[in-house]
Design brief:
single chain; about 220 residues; mainly alpha; Four Helix Bundle (Hemerythrin (Met), subunit A); 7 helices
């Protein structure tokens, strides 16, 4: 059984996974510029490059988590940076697609509100001695569905049989991704409520946010 990571392990900054996360972060403004910089009508060459940037972001997202486990290079910065970059890509894609009238603005507001509410919850939890929410597989699946939906929706802007296939698939991924994204947000809120039920003078020893169980009702 591997030894538990020490404080110095978690305080590391210069790691390969963190470098990949920074690379993904640098891709966000490029992704936005490609999508709305020239405001193309329909599906354009810029959209192809935007899909490439998004694809590279998805690959590096998978790779940095894999390398963190293989190389034992876990860090607090990586735990914060990885989900933050995912949120930025989702926000950037949502706003850009809403500007181009591909997704409704109310959907953008709904998903952004979810992240804002959870952000406030994290601030409250920190004051009570807790760390950030532990990313769940359900939340990760919701993120992946949304990130897969965006290139399909972009491809659906074109004409021809390929776009006709991508369009319904893109909306299906977007609907399921949105539903899971909101559901995972509700689960995080349940963890937040459980944490608030604990007395402030009895913070958890490991700083972990308590997870709801069936008996918690």
């Amino acid at each position: 059984m591997p030894a538990a990571p020490t404080l110095s392990d978690h305080s590391r900054v210069l790691t390969i996974p963190n470098a990949l996360s920074v690379l993904r972060l640098l891709g966000v403004p490029l992704f936005v510029w490609l999508l709305i910089g020239s405001r193309p009508d329909g599906f354009a060459v810029q959209d192809v490059w935007a899909i490439v940037v998004l694809g590279i972001g998805g690959i590096t997202d998978w790779l940095d988590g894999k390398l963190a486990r293989l190389l034992d290079q876990h860090s607090r910065l990586g735990a914060l940076l990885d989900p933050a970059v995912d949120r930025l890509y989702i926000l950037a894609a949502l706003v850009a697609l809403a500007v181009r009238d591909v997704v409704p603005w109310w959907g953008v507001v709904l998903l952004v509100a979810r992240d804002l509410v959870l952000g406030v919850c994290v601030l409250v939890l920190r004051r009570r001695g807790y760390g950030p929410f532990v990313v769940t597989y359900l939340g990760k699946a919701a993120t992946f569905l949304l990130l897969y939906a965006f290139p399909l929706l972009l491809a659906g802007l074109g004409e021809g049989w390929f776009s006709d296939i991508c369009r319904p698939l893109g909306y299906a991924f977007a609907i399921w991704g949105t539903a899971l994204y909101l559901y995972s947000g509700a689960l995080y809120l349940a963890e937040f409520v459980l944490a608030l039920r604990r007395p402030v003078d009895r913070p958890p020893a490991d700083g972990a946010v308590p997870r709801p169980t069936p008996s918690d009702g």
